[in-house]
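re: ur question from yesterday

yeah so i grabbed the chain u mentioned. its 107 aa long if i counted rite. heres the sequnce exactly as i have it in my notes:
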Amino acid sequence: MSADRIARFTTLVEQQPDNVMFRFSLAQALEAGEDPTLAIPHYQTCAAAKADWMMPRILLGKLLLKQGDITAARPVLENALQLAIAQDHEDPAMELQAILEDLPKAP
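ran it thru and got these structure tokens back, copy pasting raw so excuse formatting
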């Protein structure tokens, strides 16, 4: 199933590389696939395309944490938290606060 979704959204992104919704769907499919790190540049593209789009930042930050890259994840998650608060998304804000509180302190 995941391979089918990856193939479908890869084709759509190739046809419409500026369509961030297709790219976001591709990132989600890649994250569920065999090599989740392939999703990282797609989440980054989505986050860069829309300054107020919280979800790709949350998913990117969590994926970076899973990869052990706390230094890269922290600012992404902090930005996502700011967006969650500004957009009155209480549950994501609480989740992000908890994640950030559990991270080791920055040097």
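noticed a couple things. The chain has a mean pLDDT of 95. also The chain has two domains: 1-50, 52-107.
anyway ttyl
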